[in-house]
Design brief:
The chain is mainly alpha-helical. It has helices at residues 3-68, 74-91, 97-117. The chain contains three helices and no strands.
Length: 118
């Protein structure tokens, strides 16, 4: 085998290695995207079920309060005010406490999924 043949063989091997690495990167990226999509879909489904539960529990609690206070609307008003207070607390989160919790959860998910897939 001549030097030119060896150089051509080496060049083919390097090109094959680069192509294999590119395919591996594509498959890993596809795996991360698929995993992220499935987790997001699962979380959305859980949120939807939670919202239905919250709606019916709120409706039941408001009806219960209205019956206890002998007023047909006061229970709904109290439950609405309770939700308004929750909304204001989230809106006035000046120190970013909630944002840091969400950010840590998202980053933790990506870093644990990355280390688990390697």
């Amino acid at each position: 085998m001549t030097d030119i043949d060896q150089i051509e063989q080496l060049s083919e091997n390097v090109q094959s290695l680069i192509n294999t690495k590119a395919e591996l990167f594509k498959l890993q990226a596809l795996g991360i995207v698929a995993n992220t999509f499935s987790v997001v879909l699962k979380k959305m489904l859980l949120c939807l079920v939670f919202l239905f539960c919250l709606f019916f529990l709120s409706f039941g609690f408001a009806t219960y309060l209205s019956q206890r206070m002998n007023n047909p609307f006061i229970g709904y008003l109290l439950v609405g005010v309770l939700y308004l207070f929750g909304f204001i607390i989230i809106l006035l989160d000046r120190y970013g406490f909630l944002e840091s919790i969400f950010l840590n959860k998202v980053l933790g998910f990506f870093f644990t999924s990355k280390t688990n897939s390697i």
